[in-house]
Amino acid sequence: MNRSSPARDGDTLGGLPIYPRKNIFGNPLLPVPVGNGPQTGFFRNNYCDASPADPASHTVAAVVTPEFLDFSKSRGNDLWPLFPSMRAAQSSSSSSSASSPSLSTSASPAPGPSPATSSPEPCIWCLCATRWFEAFRAAASHPLGDRIVPRVVLEATHERAPADGKFERAVLERWAVGGDGSGRLPERGGKAKGGGGGGGGGEAIGR
């Protein structure tokens, strides 16, 4: 099959079987809006494809943040080398904060997911369904709380993600954001638009 065409039962990609390319709504799976980030997906084609050859199920289109990357590294999966620009942005932000006076506020944080605090152009990564759910479960007892849980672009998340990760679809929906072709993170509640490259990629090197 063409790397950017819809998958059907019996299709293969790179010689490996692939499940039908549908998102969690049962609609055609959109490509991941990677922006300036690296190519993603088990097949590195910027789709969160599902395949029997990928038992880790890299099917959740997750917005990568420094907080999540630190959490993932603490659990034995260091993804930081894939996002050098984010590391540089984080270092620059830390330096600026250290030289500026801190401001106090009495406002209470709003319930639900905390705002993403990554680089100016967040990267979206096809994350393992179980890894995403691991972060979700760990948030309750983690010092950073909800900030370690990546938000999700639902239209680019494969329909098999909830079953493979053993969680309800409603859990993902609570963390939904929009996505567009530039890879920028829209305002919370925005709808995802089609975009991002669907081509390219090589052998299956999911991580």
Beta-strand percentage? 5-15%
- The oligomeric status of these chains comes to single chain
Order of helices and strands: EEEHHEHEHHE
Q: What Rg is obtained from the alpha carbons, in whole angstroms?
A: 17 Å
Counting H and I runs of at least 4 residues, what is the number of helices? 5
Point out poorly predicted stretches: 97-120, 179-207
CATH architectural type of the domain at 22-90 and 113-177: 2-Layer Sandwich
The major sheet is characterized as: 2 strands, antiparallel
As laid out across the biggest beta sheet, the strand order is 1-2
- CATH homologous superfamily classification of the domain at 22-90 and 113-177: Protein of unknown function DUF2237
Plain-language structure description:
The structure is a single chain. This protein is an alpha+beta fold. The chain has a domain at 22-90 and 113-177: Phenylalanyl-tRNA Synthetase, Chain B, domain 1 (2-Layer Sandwich). Helix content is 22%, strand content 10%. The protein is built from five helices and six strands. It is globular, with a radius of gyration of 17 Å.
Sum this structure up briefly.
This protein is an alpha+beta fold.
Write the layout of secondary structure elements.
Blueprint: E1 12-13, E2 16-17, E3 58-64, H1 66-74, H2 84-98, E4 123-128, H3 129-138, E5 152-153, H4 161-165, H5 169-174, E6 176-177
Parallel strand pairs: 5-6
Antiparallel strand pairs: 1-2, 3-4
